[in-house]
Amino acid sequence: MDNELWFYEPEDRDGYLSNFASYPLYIDGSKWQTSEHYYQAHKFTEQSVITEIQQAPTPDDAFRLSREHQSQMRQDWDSIKRQTMFTVVSEKFRQHPLLAHKLIATGNCIIKEHSHKDAYWGDGGDGKGENHLGKILMEVRSLLKKQLPYKFLHYVETAKLPTPWGTFAMHGFVEPESGKEHLALSYGQWRKDEPVLMRIHSECLTGDALFSMRCDCGFQLQKALQNIVKNGSGVLLYLRQEGRGIGLLNKIRAYQLQDQGADTVEANEQLGFAADLRKYHFCESMLSFLGINEVKLMTNNPRKVKALKKIGINIVERVILQEGHNRHNHFYLSTKADKLGHMFEVPNNGSFSIHEIKKGHEL
């Protein structure tokens, strides 16, 4: 059925759902190689048996050992086995955010362990089994959707994005309440113990796609992607917040007011908007998916620095991204510096050369 997701072997496409999949976890101070190790060990109260199963080389071995010690199984097992399974499945997804994002991405699909060997945890192979593991996975999915960092954005899918500078992985996300879509572009591999070069870039159709020289957005976008490739790894978060959050058509209205002499802040305010309506809290969802908690941030905008710090991201360095200054956007950039606090210098000597990126202030 189209609305059903079947899983069984851990090597399959959706094998991460299996208790045999190799995702270690810690519960009550003890490390378990897989969910299966934990589940099988907790059938017993004898510590030597628990330890033997816990140290089993593979989940298949853990399963086999529990069968060998079946005569020692705790008497109340039938009454607690479902809660034990719920505990370990919940912990698996709590401790592995990438798996949680993937589970949420299954949407409202009916999840079934398609096992011909098990009609209690699985569907029995004929679809008639009780499928308690699938039901627990759906319960966990429902709970995760309401929790941080997942509730703001839901992961959808990943695909390759070839660019003139290199091939990025394009990860799609959607805001569940508004339906607004956002992207994360990742390049290369980074070590877990090193900060990731990153830019947060808000959508600017006129600058990014139509080559407008009224702003510096398109120039910054291209330079950021180039810098990430040159660095060997990094991430760009592309947020659908056109016109600093006022939308494309209102942005055109603001441009018309700027044509009459208003600056970019005055134009927004004359239309009844704040100077900047963008939000960044949902970046927490994207960064948890990518496994990032330390960054070198390419930005001139102090609001982005504050926003990331607020969600617990450690900014070890701010990298200045000053690109695309020209005679059409000189007043615009001056306004961003004077009224919005952007941390760059705009030349006042008549020079409109494009500046190369340089590493900036330690934060």
Describe this structure in words.
The chain is of the alpha/beta class. It has helices spanning 35-41, 47-54, 59-68, 77-95, 97-104, 132-144, 205-209, 217-231, 248-259, 264-270, 283-290, 302-310, 330-339, and strands spanning 4-7, 25-27, 30-32, 110-113, 154-162, 167-174, 181-187, 196-202, 234-239, 294-298, 314-320, 358-359. The protein is elongated, with a radius of gyration of 26 Å. Strand 5 and strand 6 form a beta hairpin. Its EC number is 3.5.4.25. It comes from Thalassomonas actiniarum.
**Average pLDDT over all residues:** 90
Distance between the termini: 53 Å
Helix content estimate:
25-40%
Radius of gyration: 26 Å
Q: How would you write the strand order of the largest sheet?
A: 5-6-7-9-8-10-11-12
Structural class of the helix and strand makeup? alpha/beta
H and E order? EEEHHHHHEHEEEEHHEHHHEHEHE
Name the beta content range: 15-25%
Sheet having the most strands: 8 strands, mixed
Poorly predicted runs are 348-363
User: How many H/I helices?
Assistant: 13
Count the beta strands. Answer: 12
Please state the overall shape, judged from the principal axes of the Cα atoms.
Answer: elongated
